[in-house]
Amino acid sequence: MREDGQSSKSEYDRRLSDTVQKYNEEKEMLKKQHSSFLKGLQQDCDTQKGKARKLEKKLQNQEFDYQEKINHLRQDYEDKIRGLMPAQIREELEDTISSLKSQVNSLQQRAMVLQEELDTKNKYSMGFGSPSRM
Q1: Per the record, which residues fall in region Disordered (predicted)?
Q2: Any domain includes 71
Q3: Which pLDDT tens digit goes with each residue over 57-78?
Q4: C-alpha distance from residue 76 to each of 48, 68, 86, 99, 102 (Å)
Q5: Residue 68 falls inside a structural domain
Q6: Please, which pLDDT band fits residue 124 given cuts at 50, 70 and 90?
Q7: How far apart are alpha carbons 66 and 99 in whole angstroms?
Q8: Could you tell me if residue 23 is inside a domain?
Q9: Does 134 fall in a domain?
Q10: Is the pTM of this model over 0.85?
Q11: DSSP letter assigned to residue 134
């Protein structure tokens, strides 16, 4: 009877040890998965930040180019006005200037939208990646 009790205790200890080992292995696996997931999120965030910076720079370059075009057109317009150009040409130039101004406004609005998206993503990624919240 005593021998049966010893073997039962031994069997119980072995099963407990196996269970603890499996638990620890699973825990380590989950830690690795979590770490990998966070690393992926950080890489995605960095990629999005890079894209946003590139888009912002491209937008600034376009704004600069459009401003140069506007200045050039204005100068041409003023030169032609001095030469008493026909009304049709003057109207076409005024229409072109208006169109370019509209395009600049549109690009500025797009820049604001992109900045808001970037700010939102940064806010989300900073809140999500914080170790104190996990």
Answers
A1: 1-20
A2: yes
A3: 999 999 999 999 999 999 988 8
A4: 41, 12, 14, 16, 19
A5: yes
A6: confident
A7: 11
A8: yes
A9: no
A10: no
A11: -
Rounded to the nearest angstrom, the gap between the alpha carbon of residue 38 and the centroid of all alpha carbons in its chain is 16
Of residues 87 and 20, which shows the higher confidence score? 20
- CA diameter of the chain: 122
pLDDT at 133: 45
Q: How many domains does the chain have?
A: 1
- CB 114 within 8 Å of CB 55: yes
Judge contact between 57 and 94, C-beta under 8 A: no
List the domain range (segments joined by +) for residue 63.
2-129
Report CA-CA distances (Å) from 117 to 58, 65, 73, 93: 16, 25, 34, 36
The tokens describing 104, both together, are 């600049």
101 CB contacts (<8 Å, ≥6 apart)? 70
> What integer pLDDT is reported at residue 128 of this predicted model?
63
d(CA 99, CA 83): 24
Residue 117 to residue 49: CA distance in whole angstroms? 10
Residue with tokens 């076409």: 92
- 107, 59 contact by CB (below 8 A): yes
Q: Output the CA torsion sign for 91, 97, 101, 107.
A: positive
